[in-house]
Amino acid sequence: MRSQDIGQAAPLPAASAHADYGAGALIVCDRLVRIYTAEGIEVQALQGLDLVVESGELTALVGASGSGKSTLMNILAGLDTPTAGSVRVASQDLGSMSSRQRLGYRRSVVGFIWQQTARNLLPYLTSAQNVELPMRLAGTRRGARRGRANELLDLLGVGHCAGRRPDQMSGGEQQRVSIAVALANSPSVLLADEPTGELDSATAASVFGALQSANSELDVTVLVVTHDTAVSSMVRRTIAIRDGRTATETLRHGSADGSGGLGHAVEYAVLDRAGRLQLPRDMTDALGMRDRVRLEAEPDHIGVWPDRPGSSSRDTPPDTPAPPDTPAPPDISDISRSEDGVA
Predict the structure, then answer these.
(1) What is the pTM of this model?
(2) What percent of the chain has a predicted confidence (pLDDT) above 90?
(3) CA–CA separation, 16 vs 5, rounded Å?
(4) Mean pLDDT comparison of 40-49, 154-163, 221-230, 304-313, highest-scoring range
(5) Is the dihedral angle over the CA atoms 10, 16, 18, 23 positive or is it negative?
(6) Contact predicate 184/162, CB 8 Å
(7) Which residues neighbour 27 within 8 Å (Cβ) at sequence distance 6 or greater?
(8) What is the pLDDT of residue 255?
(9) CA angle at residue 339 from 335 to 341, to 5 degrees?
């Protein structure tokens, strides 16, 4: 069996294969790398991350602090640039954009919601004025701005807050108005970084319901970072990031149950384009897998076993033939030389 070296990137594929990766998808991250340098120390926030999100998806992104989630969101939002690799959103190459193009991208292609409501809304404007502001900056005429603002606030269940400033609303109302602001210019993608992180469970459910409404009613693709298991259980696809790479995906099938969650969930490990696979730590720790593992190709699967120095026959997988004995090196006395001096 031929395999890639663990942790080592494979050679780039042919140009045509490279171009076809994620063809037709709304979000495509291809071997995305982001390295920060602080006080002479390099930190690799993203280490060759691959990600494909189709148009119309509602997807959750999870992972421990420092795994690279926020770095990825900032790159997708046009707030940061990758060190290497490529990232496309709505067929636009974010890595080759100028500052002016990046500004236009943030205004029209992507909407962003921060966890802190104070970063989403201007405190001296009413809800309706906050929603109108992005459209005003984009040059939308006054009548269209007002109609769009009222439509979005009603859709997200905060029409009654149109004339209120942020300090006159609850935290959940502020976040739903923030979603309306992010949707003002009809973006293709809505990014939400822990939008329910500061809310109680009931309020968080109402905010996530607003995201679901945006996804279903406006056909906007939603990518939400969350630590809330209740939120991640209500989406069909949950992507886990670990050590700067996509590690696992959980896909849920079936219709919603009584609690709002979806049906049967299946977790998959992600095999990236370089042939790397992150095995769940709880599984590797339980089997003492460290540094290297032994692979065996089977007709319908690949077996993975820990490499134990001095292991006995009990460590050999069942029904797996023992490897052939290594032939002894030839005796030097048996080697004769030809007239040309070649052995």
Answers:
(1) 0.79
(2) 52
(3) 24
(4) 154-163
(5) negative
(6) no
(7) 51, 52, 53, 76, 87, 88, 89, 189, 221, 223
(8) 60
(9) 55
